[in-house]
Amino acid sequence: MSRPDEQRFPASVFRVGSEPDARFTLANERTFLAWIRTALALVAGGVALETLGLDLHPGLRLAASLVLIVAGTALPLIAWAGWMRVERALRSGSPLPSSIVGVVLAVVVAVVGALVLLGVLLR
User: Fold this and answer.
1) H or E, element range at 117
2) H-run or E-run covering 63
3) Measured distance CA(56)–CA(58) in Å, rounded
4) 122: helix, strand or coil
5) What does the alpha-carbon distance between residue 34 and residue 6 come to, in Å, rounded to a whole number?
6) Residue 3 φ/ψ, nearest 5 degrees
7) Which residues in 15-43 are b (16+ Cβ under 10 Å) and which e?
């Protein structure tokens, strides 16, 4: 008979340590889902920026749209890796790892902001 932890996905997370307080696990899951919503908003923003055809420099508008769409596509993968790292730390009683997701998102927003600003100035 297999243990319940061996049937849970991903096994690389749930085979580590012991079951933490459910509140912490659920908080980690809520954070992951918030990053998923953010990724969806990034993709929608990229599509909207290009589809609405705002009075911006066309090349810079396209570049900003592509940055948003690529970031929105990559963010769930980065968030998933972060969820796994935090869940492993919770299960093993280790200190929580630092998060790279916020830094990535800050850089994306700064780049898109700069592209849109240049697009307005160079139209």
Assistant:
1) helix 101-121
2) helix 58-92
3) 6
4) coil
5) 27
6) -75, 150
7) ebbeeeeeeeeeebeebbeebeebbeebb
Cis peptide before 10 (omega within 30 of 0): yes
53 φ/ψ sector (left φ>0, alpha ψ -120 to 50, else beta): left
3-class secondary-structure state, position 2:
coil
DSSP annotation of 10 reads -
- For residue 54, which phi and psi values (nearest 5 degrees)? -60, 160
pLDDT per residue as tens digits for the range 8-55: 889 989 998 999 999 999 999 999 999 999 999 999 999 999 999 889
Neighbours of 105 (CB within 10 A): 18
Confidence of residue 59 (pLDDT cuts 50, 70, 90): very high
CB atoms within 10 A of CB 54: 14
pTM: 0.87
Locate 91 and state its tokens. Answer: 């299960």
Confidence (pLDDT) at 6: 61
What does pLDDT average to over the chain? 93
Section 109-120 average pLDDT? 96
